[in-house]
Amino acid sequence: MAVRTPRFYKYYAQTYRIDSAPNGGLVGTLLDLTTGFFVQDSSHIREVMRAMTESHIDGPFNEEKFIQETEFERSHYLTGDGPIFALYDTIKGIDHVVRREERRRTPQEVALIQALRKRTFKMWEDEAARIAAGEAPSFTVTSRFNAGQ
Q: Of the four listed, 11, 27, 35, 55, which is most buried by Cβ atoms within 10 Å?
């Protein structure tokens, strides 16, 4: 039975994407929370596709949720310089006001945050493509996981 791809999951705090491979198999990519980029890692395919009630696996879900979850995790675990991190700071500023005012986000705030996350996701994809083409990174990243190293 063929599996429809792409399929999107969350594996612990990392988003995970499963795609069809050219050879007819499946290939997985996992969000690396030390770099912010996706890395090929097919070792979790069976586990995520067979998951029923495991609390550390969520999905499958649509691409929109995949983007939102990816950017939530990147903004939580990563810091750095450049426009991506300025947009993350904008989102954090909105959430700070919401907490201070002890209220839920307004529909306009929700829409703005979703749009900003789509934008940062695309910026990460563009950065990965530049690096794959041999260009130097355009920004620096520090992860909560390697900040003390």
A: 11
Q: Alpha-carbon distance 8 to 4, whole Å?
A: 11
Q: What is the mean pLDDT of the chain?
A: 92
Strand, helix or coil for residue 27: strand
Q: Given this model, what pLDDT does residue 149 score?
A: 47
pTM of the model: 0.92
3-state secondary structure 99-147: HHCCCCCCHHHHHHHHHHHHHHHHHHHHHHHHHHCCCCCCCCEEECCCC
Half-sphere exposure of 98 (CA within 13 A, CB side): 15
| Chain center to CA of 85 | 14
Per the CB < 8 A criterion, the answer to whether 13 and 65 are in contact is: no
For 124, other C-beta atoms within 10 Å of its C-beta total 19
